[in-house]
Amino acid sequence: MMKIKLILFFFTLVVLTSAQEPQTGAIKTKNGFLLFFNYPGNAFTLNLNENPKTPTAQFFTVNGKYVQFQHVAKKEFAKKGNSTLINFMKWETDYINENFAKGKDIELRHEILKKEGYTGNLWSYKNTLYKKMKKEDSTVTPVIRTYYFDFVHNDLIFRFVYASTTGDKSEARSILISAARKLTFYDKKIDLQRLQNAVLKGETTYL
Length: 207
What we know:
There is one protein chain. With 207 residues, this protein is α+β, with helices and mostly antiparallel strands. It has a domain at 57-182: Protein Transport Mog1p, Chain A, CATH 3.40.1000. The chain has four helices and ten strands, in the order βββββαββαββαβα. It has helices spanning 84-99, 130-136, 169-180, 192-200, and strands at 24-28, 33-39, 42-48, 59-62, 65-73, 108-115, 118-126, 145-153, 156-164, 183-186. A hairpin with a 4-residue loop joins strand 1 and strand 2 (33-39). It is globular and about 55 Å long. The model is unreliable at 1-18 (pLDDT under 50).
């Protein structure tokens, strides 16, 4: 649950006819959309190959499961005392405790892991109201545990979130790592014409 005011992007299909290229957008692919983010110093794409109808990065599916994607400025959490990722996690857990835990500490688990050369924090919290919700309505399937995978690239923090109704950690890990692997980072500004040409050839990158 995020309390940051997230920026909502208006994604349109890319038509490279104007002199000024868009900073963010979506290119239609065979199985979905390839979203691009051409921020100065932070150029990347997100391949939504399971989402043929709705080009949005906020929610998309991985192996049929809904995942949420967010990115925020690293400088907001790069403070002394803890690592950036721990500060980002603590900011979120403090908010959860204050607004959803009803005075109880959330049951938190986290681990630092390596993902393709950079450090990520895989963490989760348990829905303390799960049993109460199930008791009140046996027909509902409440979320048991919400899993997060956070990592830093350049001056942004990236986050993928999966709300699990089973609490299966191995499944959640697989889904979140698979989601992160849909990102492709570019050292320079993305050449949208080259990217579009690559998509026409069935590729998702020209690297």
